[in-house]
């Protein structure tokens, strides 16, 4: 725990990092979806053309744009286009109940909805009624260059809604500055390189997924989103082997299932780094996965939505030992602070139970429309 130095104050917005990769490595693979591969130049062009359409419809910094699409190339291009236009994206899961979606649409104040024809009827329209169907949109005549939109660190990047287990879901507003800092810092922690290929398993309606799609593209690696189906462990193992995936993130429970399958099948996977998150990983589960999959590294990512994805990580190698019953949550990522304090907010010594306080530049802007709660 403790204080990290402020090393990331001048990091550019995440979409600019991806644009730089498109310039430096235009022909390199950016996206893999099924049997389709898209280069950085092609992804950047598609996102630019859509961004110009959004700008023409009035999208600018602080505009909120809902995105409700099935997992696809359209999903990634749509997210990137919203950022390029200066807007903030609001993921809307088509599988959510309509009442929950209605609350998210009205509470977020989205000005435009990006969706697809097959699911349009299930998604409530924004008050202004603007809807674009990505699978029916012709933007072939739109400009292909990067839009010149001035985006600052305090401008909104995205809004994620919490589970709402204690009432209506709350929107957590994340700004470009903390997001860019986190993406740069966590990518360095992962040692992400252009030779890597990452499997994006989680839904974009969970905050962890925004690290998973942004880090590979910001560092020149290839991103492979999972399709709409829920994959059993044998399918996941086959896809990892087929596409030579090197980095993947799962819940501890699913990673154990994957280890059980590969162990019984006698298979080895090309993964060099697994990340776990979403729940605590027990010591027994960690030891089983380590012994079965024998990965060079397992990373535990921890953090609530309000602290921008994973403010704390713990890196474990085959020689790592720890005394606790669960995989530790580690130390701060990027320009953040972490302290264990007592009820009077005094620092506690090692081994004494207290409350975890996180601070620094890696915090969300606040709860949307709830200044008192923020």
TrEMBL record:
<dbReference type="InterPro" id="IPR020845">
    <property type="entry name" value="AMP-binding_CS"/>
</dbReference>
<dbReference type="InterPro" id="IPR020459">
    <property type="entry name" value="AMP-binding"/>
</dbReference>
<dbReference type="Pfam" id="PF00501">
    <property type="entry name" value="AMP-binding"/>
</dbReference>
<dbReference type="GO" id="GO:0044550">
    <property type="term" value="P:secondary metabolite biosynthetic process"/>
</dbReference>
<dbReference type="GO" id="GO:0031177">
    <property type="term" value="F:phosphopantetheine binding"/>
</dbReference>
<protein>
    <submittedName>
        <fullName>Amino acid adenylation domain-containing protein</fullName>
    </submittedName>
</protein>
<dbReference type="GO" id="GO:0005737">
    <property type="term" value="C:cytoplasm"/>
</dbReference>
<dbReference type="InterPro" id="IPR000873">
    <property type="entry name" value="AMP-dep_synth/lig_dom"/>
</dbReference>
<dbReference type="GO" id="GO:0043041">
    <property type="term" value="P:amino acid activation for nonribosomal peptide biosynthetic process"/>
</dbReference>
<feature type="domain" description="AMP-dependent synthetase/ligase">
    <location>
        <begin position="19"/>
        <end position="368"/>
    </location>
</feature>
């Amino acid at each position: 725990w403790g204080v990290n130095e402020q090393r990331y104050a001048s990091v550019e917005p995440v979409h600019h990092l991806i644009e730089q990769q498109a310039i430096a490595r235009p022909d390199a693979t950016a996206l893999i979806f099924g049997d389709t591969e898209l280069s950085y130049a092609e992804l950047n062009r598609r996102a630019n053309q859509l961004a110009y359409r959004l700008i023409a419809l009035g999208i600018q910094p602080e505009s909120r744009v809902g995105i409700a699409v099935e997992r696809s190339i359209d999903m990634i291009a749509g997210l990137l286009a919203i950022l390029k236009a200066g807007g903030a994206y609001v993921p809307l899961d088509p599988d959510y109940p309509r009442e929950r979606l209605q609350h998210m649409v009205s509470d977020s104040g989205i000005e435009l909805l990006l969706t697809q024809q097959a699911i349009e009827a299930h998604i409530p329209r924004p008050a202004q009624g603007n809807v674009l169907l990505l699978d029916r949109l012709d933007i072939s005549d739109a400009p292909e260059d990067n839009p010149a939109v001035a985006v600052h660190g305090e401008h909104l990047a995205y809004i994620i809604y919490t589970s709402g287990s204690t009432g209506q879901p709350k929107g957590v507003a994340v700004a470009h500055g903390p997001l860019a800092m986190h993406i740069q810092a966590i990518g360095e922690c992962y040692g992400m390189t252009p030779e890597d290929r990452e499997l994006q398993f989680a839904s974009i309606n969970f905050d962890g997924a925004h690290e998973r799609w942004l880090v590979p593209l910001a560092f020149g690696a290839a991103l492979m989103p999972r399709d709409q189906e829920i994959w059993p462990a044998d399918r996941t193992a086959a896809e990892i082997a087929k596409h030579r995936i090197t980095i993947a993130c799962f819940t501890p429970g699913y990673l154990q299932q994957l280890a059980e399958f590969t162990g019984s099948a006698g298979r080895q996977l090309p993964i060099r780094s697994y990340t776990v998150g979403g729940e605590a990983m027990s010591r027994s589960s960690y030891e089983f996965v380590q012994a079965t999959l024998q990965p060079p590294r397992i990373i535990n990512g921890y953090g609530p939505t309000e602290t921008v994805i994973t403010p704390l990580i713990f890196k474990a190698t085959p020689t790592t030992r720890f005394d606790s019953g669960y995989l530790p949550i580690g130390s701060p990522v990027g320009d953040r602070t972490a302290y264990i304090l007592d009820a009077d907010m005094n620092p506690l010594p090692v081994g004494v139970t207290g409350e975890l306080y996180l601070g620094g530049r890696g915090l969300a802007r606040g709860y949307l429309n709830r200044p008192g709660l923020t």
